Fold:
Amino acid sequence: MKLEKSKLASDKTVQISGSKSISNRLLILESLFKNIQIGNLSNSQDTQLLKKALSENTETVDIHHAGTAMRFLTSYYSIFEGKTTVLTGSKRMKERPIKNLVNALKDLGVEIEYLENEGFPPLKITGKKITQKQVNVPANISSQFITSLLLIAGKLENGLEINLVGEVTSRSYIEMTLDILTRFGIKNSFEGNTVKVEPFDVNGKLSATSYEVESDWSSASYFYSICALGRETIHLKSFYKESTQGDSAIAKIYEEFFGIKTIFTEGEHKITLQPEPDFVFPEKIVLDMNNCPDIAQTLCVTAAALKIPFDISGLGTLRVKETDRLQALYNELKKLGTETEITELTIKSVSFGEPEEHISIGTYQDHRMAMSFAPFCLIKELSIEEEDVVEKSYPMFWKDLSDIMV
Structure:
């Protein structure tokens, strides 16, 4: 897809679909506890794949590229006593590690077999009645592994106590999960490095029967980048001031480093992104994004476009996403004229030069690579390879982008 060099129109409004993270958690809970009505469900491919998997009663479940679905369903199928499920996915999914989650479930008594390579999908899961209530899990793994366990915990006879060993990664996503459980009356606590979920009374009723999903802050991040480069006002719906999404940190980050104020209109659940006209950009951006790694690509592209030096840490989980996102950033930022250095946990700029004459951004089958680089069209025309990858999280992205450009 070729993106012409564009300008940002002023005062345009974009309605973003419901959060994929929240939607996927709710689908698992709805399947386990029933009688939950979900409003503003994400229209992302990942969410639709998870919804389809939960509605089918087949022995083999293929979730393609949907990493969240793979992780959540691994625990979900583990608690159906005597039921055998083969859980598989795309070639890339078979390269994404799942050993820490499988080990935790095995420690709880579940029977799980690797069908190809040790530590990776596909998996053969034989459900068990889980009575053990304690398990140790490395704290620096993907929060989705931990959330996967928390979502089934209320259905376990004795609940579940997870001891997180080490420094916790993406704490905000764990807290989001616990907030959702609390909304439905499933008691829980998170003290120090110990997360507890009490068993839910099988004869009891959930304290809520409906949930309106807030729009996705990860998707909103691309419009913060567009606003930072285009310096015009953008309105986004439907967002809450007291959000439980970790990526809502984008509002504070972009105000501090790029002068983009976020104004909340409570009654309409609308936010206005407003650039400060005389903002002085920082000499350097130094930031730990341990709690919001999914918006790191967006930040790096914005900084590169504005030639602001950056040193970003806390990015260990980016190595095992849809692609190795740190390596992908290193490769593609070069095309914008930005040289970087990467480690297992960090990325920092080294120098800024001129962009390539004809920029073609590789996406590596990663939706966030496509969307995070798209705002650069405000600086120079470029092409995005495999533009359909956005369907994974934001199918309407290209239309919404074109609607706000002139």
User: Anything to note?
Assistant: The two ends are 17 Å apart (CA to CA). Residues 107 and 135 are 7 Å apart (CA to CA). The chain is about 30% helix and 20% strand.
